[in-house]
Design a protein that fits this description.
The protein is of the alpha+beta class and 568 residues long. The chain contains 22 helices and 15 strands.
Length: 568
């Protein structure tokens, strides 16, 4: 298959899962505005609003990669840019930021036309917005919701030492595949927080003299700027840093520690030690004067994206631009907000830009043919399922749609089907992708129904002597569908159902792709069902070299305390 087709399949194929940051309502504009303001508004849709509506339709999660592509969206974005973009110039980059950017990055920011990378940025933001709408839970406080979101990201992205096939995956692809590094978890988490209009930074431990920079691959934390504090989360260990004070009852865990607490009291971080051979890799002294890095790629800062941001309000609201510089009306930009939040820990001149997002996205835009083929292979299970039928040559073989007679002729049962009298033809290929999209949009119940169908149809197909590539694809699709079913059940609070699904998955000898993740989710589900002893027993099977071992032991201690409390 040509590389261009692989690129379409893997990069455009999938979702537009969710959105980006909305600043202020769009100002009244000149004749290049959308023309939707004022009492003289015509009942006929303005050309600019029509263009925006087309952009909405192209980037709709359920359509992108099926009937539309990112390339289509970029064309429409440039239509809007030519005739509708606001004429006001955004505030310039702060000198502290500009000096940290390379020449290609500065050129990218000054580009007038929307590029392919902008379309992918919009898609990534749409995913972030979707996640932000359902993954924050029902906590009573904003900190509760921020913690719930972090826990969701940890569940949604299984930890790996390096990206699958060592590919430069975008946040969208990381989330879709459900596997990522600690860097990926931090990147996704901070981007989703943008949709909640909550700032966060990368906290990099360093020596008290500030002379020893963080080494590549060194431990780091995410610092969430909230309520005048900096709350700490560890995406590699997979837990919020626990405070010494304020432990919650019932096994729900302690309050999240702040940077000030962790830096002043060594006991805060020592809580995560798991014996003399498993010491938490960050010490209190290394947080007294930590490095602070902005987590964003330049797509959030470009002039064209800042102009488009003015239109993402109301039902369309999301954050697609988050400029580092202060606005013309004095509203603080990202750099100023982070500098102010640093207090005694850092000042404006010490803030850096985390290089990982830009390095990853630049490499993503220049993937080789071999890399594109590897990416297409990773995405291949999403094309399931096929069925045995009569192909175009009139011979028995694998086909991508099914036909059957519907006596009631009820098209509502299959809204995507083509009706021909009483015969329904329904495309089955891509059912796994549609189910995954439903899940990413937060439609867990609908996703579970679709995953159950995929699992059943894959099992039926695997009874036949089909070609090896199709056998591999459908075996993996069935395994993915089973694990994601359990994840949906957990998100819905159906803990016992999740336990049953995961126990079924873990008993199957061929199910190896989600072994670590399924053990972790099984333990969480057992704890969620109130069976803390079973949760402890499940998680204790993790090996000491498990990358999340310290986090696992922290959860085990919580559950042991909860079990003891229940017994009393």
């Amino acid at each position: 298959m040509p590389a261009t087709i692989f690129r379409f399949f893997s990069i455009g194929l999938l979702l537009v899962a969710t959105g980006c940051r909305n600043d202020k309502p769009a100002p009244q504009q000149d004749k290049k505005s959308t023309g939707t303001q004022g009492s003289t508004q015509s009942q006929t849709e303005s050309p600019c609003e029509g263009t925006l509506a087309t952009i909405d339709e192209v980037f709709k999660l359920s359509k992108l990669g099926r009937t539309t592509t990112i390339e289509d969206g970029v064309l429409r974005l440039n239509d809007w840019q030519r005739t509708c973009a606001p004429s006001e110039s955004p505030a310039p980059l702060p000198l502290e930021i500009a000096k940290l950017l390379s020449e290609p990055q500065l050129k990218f920011l000054d580009e007038n036309r929307f590029l392919q990378r902008d379309g992918e940025h919009l898609r990534n933001c749409l995913l972030d917005r979707a996640v932000s709408r359902y993954a924050t839970g029902t906590g009573a406080t904003e900190l509760d919701r921020v913690k719930s979101l972090f826990e969701h990201v940890v569940r949604a992205i299984g930890l790996v030492a390096e990206p699958p096939q060592k590919l430069p995956l975008s946040p969208y692809e990381v989330y879709l595949l459900g596997k990522g590094t600690a860097d990926d978890r931090a990147w996704v988490y901070i981007n989703v927080l943008k949709q909640l209009r909550i700032d966060a930074v990368l906290i990099q431990p360093q020596s008290s003299d500030r002379q020893t920079p963080a080494a590549a691959g060194a431990a780091f934390l995410v610092g969430v700027l909230l309520e005048g504090q900096i709350f700490l989360f560890d995406p590699k260990v997979g837990v919020a840093i626990p405070s010494i004070e304020g432990a919650a009852a019932g096994g729900t865990g302690p309050r999240v520690a702040t940077l000030a607490e962790a830096a002043s009291d060594p006991a805060v971080l020592k809580q995560l030690d798991a014996g003399p051979d498993h010491i938490y890799p960050i010490a209190a002294d290394e947080l007294k004067h930590p490095g602070a890095a902005i987590v964003a790629d330049p797509a959030f800062w470009s002039r064209r994206m800042q102009g488009l941001q003015t239109q993402f309000v109301g039902a369309r609201a999301m954050v697609i631009a988050d400029p580092p510089g202060d606005s013309a009306d004095g509203a603080p930009g990202l750099h100023s907000r982070i500098a102010k939040a640093g207090g005694d820990f850092w000042n404006a001149s010490e803030i850096r830009i985390w290089g990982m997002p830009e390095e990853r996205l630049a490499a993503h835009a220049q993937m080789t043919k071999d890399q594109l083929e590897l990416l297409a292979g990773l995405m291949s299970p999403f094309a399931a399922y096929k069925i045995v039928g009569i192909n175009a040559e009139g011979q028995a073989g694998l086909v991508e749609s099914e036909k059957h007679e519907d006596i009631a002729a009820d098209k509502n049962l299959y809204p995507s089907a083509r009706m021909n009298e009483r015969v329904i033809e329904r495309t089955t290929a891509g059912a796994q992708m549609q189910a995954r999209i439903d899940q990413l949009e937060g439609n867990s119940a609908q996703a579970v129904r679709a995953y159950l169908e995929v699992r059943e149809k894959c099992r039926e197909l695997l009874k036949y002597n089909i070609v090896i590539p199709e056998r591999i694809r459908h075996t993996r699709a069935a395994e993915d569908a089973t694990y994601w079913t359990a994840l949906c059940q957990y998100e819905q609070g159906e803990m016992k159902s999740a336990v049953n699904t995961l126990q079924y998955l873990r008993k199957r000898s061929e199910s190896t792709h989600w072994q670590r993740e399924s053990r972790y989710l099984l333990a969480l589900s057992q704890a969620g069902a109130g069976d803390f002893k079973a949760a402890v027993a499940t998680l204790e099977t993790a090996e000491p070299d498990d990358p999340e071992y310290l986090g696992n032991r922290h959860l085990i201690r919580q559950w042991q305390a909860a079990a003891k409390s229940n017994a009393n």
